[in-house]
Amino acid sequence: MRKSSLSKAQRNFQVFNRNDHVNQYENLEESSIEDKSGSLDGNDDFIAFDNSSSEDEDDKEGQETVLGSDVGEEVLPTVNTDYPWILNHDHSKQREIADWLTLEIRDFVAYISPSRQEIELRNKTIRTLRHAVGKLWPGADLQVFGSYATDLYLPGSDIDCVVNSKTGDKESRPSLYELAHFLKSRKLATQVEVIAKARVPIIKFVEPNSQIHVDVSFERTNGLEAAKLIRSWLEQTPGLRELVLIVKQFLHARRLNNVHTGGLGGFSIICLVYAFLNLHPRIVTGEIDARYNLGVLLIDFFELYGKNFGYDDVAVVVADQRPCYIRKSDWSDLRLSGGSGTFNLAIQDPGDPSNNISRSSFNLRDIKKAFAGGFDLLTNRCFELDTATFKDRVGKSILGNVIKYRGTLRDFNDDRYLVANSAIIENEKYHKRRSRIVHDQEDVFIDPSESDGETLKEEQDSYLIQEIEQPPKKRRQTKSVNELMGVPNEDEEDDYNPLNRETTESSTLKNATVDAQTRRDYWLNKGNSMSN
């Protein structure tokens, strides 16, 4: 397609008129005849997968080469080092751009999902550390929370642990140094760092055999409670794991996922995606199935939190398994702390209604700008490839316009169902020991010893991983430029009521999407009207 034709079409497409975000990836595509291995020099926008503790990844760029570039070697097809998840997974012949993006999201998630060896290595690391803690402090136990206890971790991510004891006195400064010295003297930890003066004292170190980074906190149970809650969300919310992993990688690549530098933490990301999926009008009314519309939902997520959400006046609440948006002024603890009416992200802790779990994400402007840029980049790319010929689509990536990967090539095997995750097993055992839940037909009685007082769902005996079924075939729909992602008829009424989750008539799940302007109007009203 000639540039002049594309430019003319772009002028008729509203999103192309926005210039508030610069596409940093528009010149990063690779072809089989061009070697652009040096085009990313100095670019830190990637994630390392080698379990290295170093954040300076520029040194690794010289180690990567394009296959077939050396003289005298057999010429092989070029592997795009920026988005290798498309290798042997070409979806360029998909009629619908939305389906292409959905399939590519699934490929990326499968690509970064843990292998059998990775799971076994993490399990061994946890067993070693748990045994060491029990030997040093009889009666104390080491538990895992965070991303590993929820299967929402990226390759090379650290392991978050907590030590709880019967005496409850292990958070003291002497205890921190005692454990650090014990682990180091037995060569179970390197690069040990004790952070005793923080609000949450921790020990940071690297386990030498696995080279996995480990953070250990003390005498806290909120992380263990949150891990179980998140697993229940994953069971109940199709598409949650896929979108969370995409958003985590998206922010990681931009160095916006570190809470210590004002980024968005893992729990905050999960809460945002969980609220988004549970309040999306087309999902609530049963018009679309999230599993088969991941591409459209990712674009909607970027649009909501990047362009339309009212951060000044609206807070996110995910308590009692019923997400909602509330006025910041109605959150008394937030109002008393001065967080109401200011430009910041407010997410109510489901285990402690007085706590804002995103209070440390002070770099919200860059996060919001990144989400807005993600929306622009994806919609621009979708429009560009939708107008391209099938021949010009070959070897192209939609998701690669916002996400890059560099590191050792991986396979596409998700081995979570082959090897049990010991962190999840131990977390379930912990809750079985701690909770006494009696279910009646109408009432749920909770053991008053629960420190957080949160309502828990019935204990599950196992954490099952099910393979995603293939989407049904759809009939071909004609569409115009304004119907890029699939739009219902303009005279179709949206009877969505956020307070009524049941529809008056049952309808078959369809691969439908929403007009861009309709989405903007809905989410803008959802986020901003509360302050009126």
TrEMBL record:
Pfam family, one: MTPAP-like_central
Matching InterPro entries: MTPAP-like_central, NT_sf, PAP_assoc, Trf4-like
Gene Ontology cellular-component terms listed: nucleolus; TRAMP complex
E.C. number(s) listed in UniProt: 2.7.7.19
Gene3D superfamilies in UniProt: 1.10.1410.10, Beta Polymerase, domain 2 (3.30.460.10)
EC class: transferase
Cofactor(s) listed: Mg(2+); Mn(2+)
Biased composition (Polar residues): 505-516
GO MF annotation list: aminopeptidase activity; metal ion binding; mRNA binding; poly(A) RNA polymerase activity
Start and end residues of each Poly(A) RNA polymerase mitochondrial-like central palm domain: 102-233
Chain spans, region Disordered: 17-68, 469-532
Keywords, ordered alphabetically: Aminopeptidase, Cell cycle, Cell division, Hydrolase, Magnesium, Manganese, Metal-binding, Mitosis, Nucleotidyltransferase, Protease, Transferase
Keyword Cytoplasm: no
Catalytic activity, reaction form: RNA(n) + ATP = RNA(n)-3'-adenine ribonucleotide + diphosphate
Every PAP-associated domain range: 293-355
UniProt keyword Magnesium, yes or no: yes
A GO biological process held by the record: nuclear polyadenylation-dependent snoRNA catabolic process
Similarity comment text for this entry: Belongs to the DNA polymerase type-B-like family.
Protein name according to UniProt: polynucleotide adenylyltransferase
Lineage start: Eukaryota, Fungi, Dikarya, Ascomycota, Saccharomycotina
